[in-house]
């Protein structure tokens, strides 16, 4: 039996799925791209693009990143409501959860800006043993992670770096990278992603 909380979560997911569908369809048609063109530029299959534009699927964070990179926008741009306000205050609990670990960890997008610069603010939590693999982002993308608690292992281009509570790591994220919690305690992280402007065609 669905509870009120379950219904609220379902409504939120449905609203986000509809927002992504509308934005992707509008951006693609505004550029005069076919479904095949967006699929080629993003590296996301045409079938998945069709599902996204029809609001029939809840795409993964990796898929959203690839599509956002192709358009030259942030992931937040694909999720934002139609209206934008000069001042916006939002609660972390209302931020979209775009990744869920098998042991209760999560990654949620707290806020994103597209003007004048492309910046995203994320909150991540990793339970012991959890990991998140991230493909390369658009060229020039940088990530800055500050560990609030625990110890996070960050592997960038095959090199592993251990970041402890109170430490910050920044790196070029236009290469594959992995986050892991190898310890026995949960890890909490704040992440800032700085995305260069401009569309990215993965075929190039």
Automatic annotation (TrEMBL):
- All copies of the HTH cro/C1-type domain together span 24-78
Q: Which UniProt keywords apply?
A: DNA-binding
Q: Which Gene3D superfamilies match?
A: Jelly Rolls, lambda repressor-like DNA-binding domains
- Would you tell me the Gene Ontology cellular component terms? cytosol
GO MF term set: DNA binding; DNA-binding transcription factor activity
Short name of one Pfam family for this protein? Cupin_2
InterPro entries in the record: Cro/C1-type_HTH (IPR001387), Cupin_2 (IPR013096), Lambda_DNA-bd_dom_sf (IPR010982), RmlC-like_jellyroll (IPR014710), RmlC_Cupin_sf (IPR011051), TransReg_Diox_bact_type (IPR050807)
Q: Which PANTHER family match?
A: HTH-TYPE TRANSCRIPTIONAL REGULATOR, METHYLPHOSPHONATE SYNTHASE
User: What is the name attached to this protein's record?
Assistant: Transcriptional regulator
């Amino acid at each position: 039996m669905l509870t009120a909380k379950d219904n609220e979560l379902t409504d939120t997911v449905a609203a986000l799925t509809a927002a992504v569908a509308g934005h992707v369809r509008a951006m693609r048609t505004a550029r005069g791209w076919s479904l095949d063109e967006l699929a080629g530029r993003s590296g996301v299959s045409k079938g998945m693009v069709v599902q996204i534009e029809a609001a029939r699927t809840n795409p993964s964070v990796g898929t959203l990143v690839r599509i956002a990179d192709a358009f030259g926008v942030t992931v937040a741009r694909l999720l934002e409501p139609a209206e934008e306000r000069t001042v916006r205050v939002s609660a972390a609990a209302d931020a979209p959860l775009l990744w869920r670990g098998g042991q209760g960890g999560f990654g949620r997008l707290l806020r994103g800006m597209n003007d004048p610069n492309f910046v995203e603010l994320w909150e991540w939590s990793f339970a012991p043993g959890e990991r998140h693999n991230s493909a390369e982002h658009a060229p020039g993308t940088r990530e800055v992670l500050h560990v609030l608690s625990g110890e996070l292992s960050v592997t960038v281009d095959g090199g592993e770096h251990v970041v402890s509570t109170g430490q910050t790591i920044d790196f070029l994220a236009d290469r594959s990278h992995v986050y892991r919690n190898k310890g026995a305690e949960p890890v909490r992280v704040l992440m800032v992603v700085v995305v260069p402007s401009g569309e990215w065609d993965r075929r190039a």
